Amino acid sequence: MNFWIILLVLVSVLKVVSGTAQIEIRLLRYVNPGGKGDNGHPCDGRWLFNGSPCDHKIILCVDRAGGSSSINRCAYGRADTGEISNADTITFAGRAGRLSNPFSFRLSTWPGTVKIKVRVTDIDDNSDDFVDFMQNQFSTTEVTYSRTHRVVVKRRTTLSMVIRVYCDQNYYGPQCTTFCRPRNDWMGHYKCDGTSGAKICYQGWRGQTCNQRVNLCGPCQHGSCDRTASVYRCVCDFGYKGTNCETEIDQCVSKPCRNGGQCSTFVTNYICLCPTGWYGSICDNDVNECNYNSCRNNGTCVNTLGSYRCKCDKGWTGTHCDIDVNECAIGDPCNANASCINVPGTFECVCSEGLSGGTCEDINECLEDNPCFGNATCINEHGSFQCFCPEGWTGDQCDIDVNECENNPCLSNSTCTNLEGSFVCVCPAGMNGTYCDLDIDECANSPCVGNSTCVNQDGSFVCSCAKGFAGVLCETDIDECASAPCANNGSCVDHVGTYSCECHSGWAGDLCEEEKDECEGKPCNNNGTCTDLFDDFDCFCARGWTGKACDDDINECLVNDPCSYDGNCTNVLGSFTCECPPNWEGPTCDDDVDECLLSPCENGGSCDNRIGRYSCLCSDGFTGQDCDVDVNECVQNPCFNNGTCLNMNGDYVCTCPPGWSGVNCGQDQDECDTSPCSNGGSCENTEGSFTCSCSVDYSGRLCETFIDNCAGDPCLNHGNCTSAQGTFRCDCSSSWTGERCNDDVNECERNPCQFGSTCINKNGSFTCQCPPEMTGPTCTTDVNECLSNPCINGGDCVNNVGSFHCECHLGFKGRLCGQIDFCGSSPCRHNSTCVSDGSPRCICPKEVFGKFCDIILKNACIDDNTDPVMVNVNGDLDTTGLEALNTTLLQALSNVFAIAAGDIRLVLTPEHSADTDNKPMTTVLVSAFVKDVQICQDELTNVFNTEHILDNALTLPATVIVQKSISDGRVGNLQSTAVFETKENWLISRWYILAVIAGVFIALVAIATVIYKHRRRPKTMVIAGRNGSLYRNGSLTMPEDTGDETSAIASLSFDNVLYTTFQPQGPTPPPATCDNDDVCT
User: Fold this and answer.
1) Range of the domain at 578
2) Which helix (H) or strand (E) holds 1013?
3) Are 691 and 677 spatial neighbours (Cβ–Cβ below 8 Å)?
4) pLDDT higher than threshold 90 for residue 78
5) How far is the C-alpha of 265 from the C-alpha of 246, rounded, in Å?
6) What average pLDDT does the chain have?
7) Which of 218, 441, 730, 920 is a Cys-bridge partner for 715, taking CB atoms 3.0 to 4.6 Å apart?
């Protein structure tokens, strides 16, 4: 056991010593002016001619503050972006090349200052070109995740970044070396200070590791004591209030039931009886009646709060869209010259000549029944309408509220609440405005002195001092020249509130720290690129410009006429234009115009593009340059056998005489190929014609005339007659049979009726008598009983085949949820049984008591907890007083445990004696049993205190004393007699010694009683545990005799003493004898 504790402490110490910190770097932007290497040449070109932008690779190194300039010595970490192609200016987002951006390095501790080193190269196929090397020192004492620092490292190129330094979880302090992990267990009860990491004890705990409890608890009747509070606080169970949670709360006082629900209080809860259309524990859930498909004839159900409505298809009306609209009786929807015919669900218009459409005219839906909700504007359209919604509404009919909160209009972490047609922002403290975007501006009173700038912050302000001033309000002037701020031998001139540096030639900047950048004024015109030189600059001009500042236009037309094929060249500033001759185009007139792109060839002709022209290859039947001339083929008489030729556009058609076919009417037509003879007749082809040989029962040229043997309808009962070979055949329906369909079929023999229904045969048919829960021709369609909403009190109806059942909400039961279920909220505790008969009644298991079985007696009182409670009464308690104590305690226990007084047994044993002043006093030993289960001493003592038993029962002053025996090392209130301690394990392992001690104790009590009667002197009896401190090393020490026996006794302590009697008579000698067990007399 000790080994593991030591190991745990060592691990905790190691964690505190190690500590971890993180430095997080987010790259923002890298700029390489002109895309050049360190040698001044373009990265991917030669000398001043740029081939393409640079392919940068950036290596970032974090080293110690005094580290070397080597990019390979990185004490804290090194990051490599890899190649970033074709970019002289790089703006970083979520990635920096192959790195995630930001990236971080872990440090064992934060040193306060680190060196940031950056090496940039240009990646090439043969060898990489060096671009730049930059380094900078970074320092901060603000080690927190919420603080970021913008850092710029610069030499010839510039890299900007944001750095954040913070401690790992559970580490704190400026170097992240303080370890603190919040705990709330046996090792401690504390949280950690967010800056220093110091332990902050939770309420109710104290000590270095917050593991010492502050005991402020008192009696809670229906609740639990909050041991973390700094004062006594009883956390009440639901439904109770008061200092000790003794008062039951009327749950309906707050009117929790909404939407007209009726509230009923029972036990520690309430139940809401919801009106029709609402359900839920507080009637705040709308019943979606549309789930029951209440609307008919394809009506659309629209759920509303507490109800619903049916949006009927055109032609239907009524609550459930089950009433046909007689459109013809409502204003005659058809045109005045049309006739209206009503049909179920719609109507038909028989239009007069000149009218068309369903109603022979357009319907203006906006005039009949404005379908747009609210203040929306309805615009009629042909055959439809359109709703223009006001702000805050949407949907085809403007009936859907726009949830403005989805766009997060509220700022400053405020809460957005959607309203119908609008929204409202609930602002946090310190903010106001419609969108919570207005901060209270402390700078309105101009607290900052001089030309300083006041910066408003949330709940405060900061003065940004003008250069040369300092102080909280910028009230102190600074002599800047005292620190020699000017670099490179610049001369410092002090001014009021500021200073200036007079720089030597070649230097610039406020502190003369920068080489003068002649490119700063952008001297290169017309998009020329400026390169800074010492006391000079060089312009790399864009195409079309020349000169020192790129302001001289190059006349390309004079240098080398760029326009081909005799194009006309015109010089313009920085460029030129070419006016091309026909059939040529392009910037320099060297692109041939493809005339075929304009599809000049008509009638399927194909176009062939040539240099400067085109030609068309025409399809058959067309000619001409663009194939737009038709060829008249009929001039050549192509049709044979007196066929008639008809010229067509690009073709011809021959109309052949009967008996001939083919494109040119040169083929005899075999009419028999098309089987012209009907009903099995055989065809014989002839020159230009054919003949049909008909089968029996048919005649005519094409055998199309049928000899009908079914004339006169010989088949009865709607049987189908088929004529065949001089006779007929009857095909009967399923309900009839026989040669002429005159014999009835008994369908009931096939048992068509389902679910126990009764079949009744009829001539040509049958009927099924269905049970109430089924319907349909054969009783196979289930009746949906849920359509009539049989479940009440918000119960959910579930339809079953042939039946239904109700799923009741909390607090209800029964087939239709019409009975109140008092046990629904499970008021009975500790595995007790709840019986709901008018109100909840809890049947408690053994050793559990109370109205709601919320009181548990201990299964067995441990050690001395079975001892009786000792009541000391100042005076002689007579029989009447003893009976009053018995009656009051009996009634209190009956109320506390919620059981009959007959189930409680009390044992009161009075002992009469006298105090030190020889005044009478009575000691009453009290034990109590509930159904033969003893109430432990601590539980009975708690009842005495919380129910004020002594104050209510006795007129004499009395106190309850907790007396502990030798078997328990804990000592209660012995009226400051002594404090004792024992080794409980020693007694458990040597139980026989406890028996001997008990015998000695009884004997000593008897001796003390005899002495008391004979001597009549006041004595003090002390019952103590082991390991005291009175008698040490064979000597007994007593305080000086003050005449106050009580004070003398109160300061005594014993070593291995079981029982003793003292008579203070002045200085007390050491004990006379001590036996081997160190028992002294």
Assistant:
1) 529-596
2) helix 991-1015
3) no
4) yes
5) 18
6) 78
7) 730
Q: What are phi and psi of 174, to 5 degrees?
A: -65, -20
DSSP per residue, 1033-1060: TTEE------S-HHHHHHT---SS--EE
419 and 536 within one domain: no
Q: Rounded mean pLDDT of 402-427?
A: 86
**pLDDT given at position 153:** 94
Identify the domain boundary among 270, 287, 304: 287
Per-residue pLDDT, averaged over 986-1002, amounts to: 67
User: Is 689 within the bounds of a domain?
Assistant: no
Mean pLDDT, range 915-939, rounded to an integer: 84
Overall domain count for the chain: 8
Same domain, 100 and 60: yes
Residue 798 placed within a domain: yes
pLDDT value at position 1079?
Answer: 45
Do the beta carbons of residue 747 and residue 761 sit within 8 Å? yes
**pLDDT higher than 80, residue 868:** yes
Tell me, what CATH number does 87's domain have? 2.60.40.3510
Phi, psi of 665 (to 5 degrees): 60, 35
Q: Give CA separation, 394 vs 176, 386, 397, 403, 407, in Å.
A: 55, 12, 7, 10, 15
CATH number for the domain spanning 272: value is 2.10.25.10
SS3 552: strand
| pTM of the complete model beyond 0.85 | no
Q: How far apart are the first and last CA of the chain?
A: 40
Q: Most distant CA pair in the chain: distance in Å?
A: 170
Are 459 and 573 within one domain?
Answer: no
Judge whether 336 lies within some domain.
no
Question: Are residues 50 and 172 located together in one domain of the fold?
Answer: yes
610 and 590 within one domain: no
Radius of gyration of the chain (CA): 55
pLDDT in tens, 247-258: 877 778 788 898
- Lookup: tokens for 1016: 């009549």
C-alpha angle 584/588/592, rounded to 5°? Answer: 25
Q: Structure tokens of 704?
A: 């199309």
**Percent of the chain residues past pLDDT 90, beyond the cut:** 12
Element (H, E) at 190: strand 188-192
Residue pLDDT, tens place only, 1020-1067: 333 333 333 333 333 333 334 444 333 333 333 333 333 333 334 344
- Among the three residues 179, 206, 240, which one is the final residue of a domain in this structure? 179
Alpha helices in 511-615 (DSSP H): 556-559
Asked if residue 953 belongs to a domain, the reply is no
The pair of three-digit structure tokens given for residue 170, joined into one six-digit string: 């559970």
- Determine whether 233 is exposed, middle or buried from the number of CB atoms within 10 Å of its CB (0-12, 13-18, 19+): buried
- Side-chain-side CA neighbours of 841 within 13 Å: the count stands at 7
User: d(Cα 121, Cα 268) in Å, to the nearest integer?
Assistant: 77
Q: Are residues 57 and 137 in the same domain?
A: yes
Per-residue confidence (pLDDT) for residue 22, from 0 to 100: 93
Nearest to 517, CA basis, from 503, 501, 500: 503
Rounded to whole angstroms, the Cα distance separating 850 from 551 reads 102
Most confidently modeled of 16-25, 154-163, 245-254, 403-412?
A: 154-163
